[in-house]
Write a structure and sequence with these properties.
The chain is built from three helices and twelve strands; from the N terminus they run H-E-E-E-E-E-H-E-E-H-E-E-E-E-E. The protein has helices at 3-8, 78-85, 112-120; strands at 16-25, 28-40, 46-50, 56-61, 65-72, 88-90, 98-102, 127-138, 146-157, 160-172, 175-183, 186-192. Strand 8 and strand 9 form a beta hairpin.
C-alpha cells in the first residue's frame, strides 16, 4: 500500500470534500463550487453525496482497492465523471500497471439497444463499456508526494466506439488535488478548495 493513495481514497462518514469546478463548454468558462460528503446507508454501505446535484456514488474500499459499485443521479455531474474516472484504483503504486474493468451499461444505454442486448446476451455481447487506468506520473517511488493517474472510459457497440472519455486525477497532500475530464472537445476540471 502506498500511503498517498490509501489516504487520498480513505473516505470516512462525515468527511467533506469541496471542489471548484471549471467547465469549458463551447468557449464559455463556468465556475462553480461543489460540496461532497461521505455517508453510509441503512445497510452500512458508504457513498459520496453531492449536495449540488443530489447525486450519490456508492463505493467499497477494502484497503487494497477502491472501487465504485453504483451511481444514482445526474449523469452530467462532476461526481458521475469521478465515478467513471476513478472507477477502480489500486491503493499501491506499481509502475506502468494497468487496471481494467467493465462498467455497468445502465449509465450508457437505454431503450431498444438495451432490450436487444438483453435478448441476445446468451449468444453475443455487443454493447460494452470498459474502464482502463494507469499510474502516469510519480515524484518519488519510495515516498511519493504526488501521483497522477490517467484513465479512460470507452463505450462500444460491436467494434464501433460510441463514446470515449479521458480523465487525469492528481493526488497530492494526502487528498485528491485535481481532477480533469476531456470528452469530444469539452473539458472541465475540478480542484480541491
Amino acid at each position: 500500500i502506498t500511503p498517498l493513495l490509501s489516504k487520498s481514497f480513505y473516505f470516512i462518514p462525515g468527511a467533506v470534500l469541496n471542489f471548484l469546478v471549471t467547465r469549458n463548454n463551447q468557449r464559455l468558462f463556468e465556475k462553480q463550487k461543489e460540496k461532497w460528503e461521505i455517508f453510509v446507508d441503512a445497510y452500512n454501505h458508504p457513498y459520496i453525496f453531492c449536495h449540488t446535484t443530489k447525486s450519490m456514488a456508492y463505493f467499497v474500499n477494502n484497503e487494497t482497492l477502491h472501487y465504485f459499485t453504483d451511481f444514482i443521479g445526474d449523469k452530467n455531474s462532476l461526481l458521475y465523471y469521478f465515478y467513471l474516472g476513478a472507477h477502480k484504483v489500486l491503493l499501491g503504486y506499481y509502475h506502468q500497471m494497468e487496471i481494467k474493468d467493465k462498467l455497468p451499461l445502465e449509465g450508457f444505454y437505454s431503450g431498444p439497444s438495451k432490450i436487444i442486448q438483453d435478448f441476445i446476451a446468451p449468444f453475443n455481447i455487443y454493447l460494452k463499456a470498459e474502464y482502463r487506468s494507469v499510474f502516469s506520473q510519480i515524484d518519488d517511488v519510495s515516498n511519493p508526494n504526488q501521483i497522477e493517474i490517467k484513465s479512460e472510459s470507452i463505450v462500444m457497440a460491436g467494434n464501433a466506439v460510441r463514446r470515449k472519455v479521458n480523465f487525469n486525477l492528481t493526488l497530492k497532500e494526502n487528498k485528491i488535488h485535481s481532477f480533469k475530464v476531456l470528452e469530444n472537445g469539452k473539458m472541465f476540471s475540478a480542484e480541491t478548495v
